[in-house]
């Protein structure tokens, strides 16, 4: 799994327990999944359709640096299924895992649109074509 984004846990990200608010972390994961999908599918019209069970494994505290990792599980006809893991950058302790995030490729009218992709592509490889 490649870890693409790092976030610094700040006071405004905390819940009353003084740990990272789960809703904030899920928003970061959703944004990361969307950005990853936009790049892979080469289309800015992508939405989250489904997020499977979320497994919180450890807490993050103010000052922690976390990393968000995303990998492709499967390419569908109009969708992309991703897996996500978040870990503490310094200790590599898992914070959360999400086994299935389904992102759907849309046309300009908001309807599912086939994307024609079957494997992960890297931008650097597209540039040399």
Ordered list of secondary-structure elements with their pairings:
Blueprint: E1 2-8, H1 22-41, E2 46-51, E3 54-56, E4 65-75, E5 79-88, E6 94-105, H2 123-127
Antiparallel strand pairs: 1-4, 2-6, 3-6, 4-5, 5-6
Characterization of this structure:
The protein is α+β, with helices and mostly antiparallel strands and 129 residues long. It has one domain (2-120): Thiol Ester Dehydrase, Chain A. Helices cover 19% and strands 38% of the residues. The chain has two helices and six strands. The protein has helices at 22-41, 123-127, and strands at 2-8, 46-51, 54-56, 65-75, 79-88, 94-105. Strands 1, 2, 3, 4, 5 and 6 form a six-stranded antiparallel β-sheet that branches. A hairpin with a 3-residue loop joins strand 4 (65-75) and strand 5 (79-88). The radius of gyration is 16 Å and the shape is elongated. The chain starts with a strand and ends with a helix. The relative contact order is 0.23.
Task: Name the structural class.
Answer: alpha+beta
CATH architecture field? Roll
Broad CATH class: Alpha Beta
General shape: elongated
- Fraction in helix: 10-25%
Average pLDDT works out at: 95
Biggest beta-sheet profile: 6 strands, antiparallel
N-C termini distance: 25 Å
Secondary-structure element order, N to C: EHEEEEEH
Number of strands: 6
Low-confidence stretches: none
CATH topology description: Thiol Ester Dehydrase, Chain A
**Roughly how many Å is the radius of gyration?**
16 Å
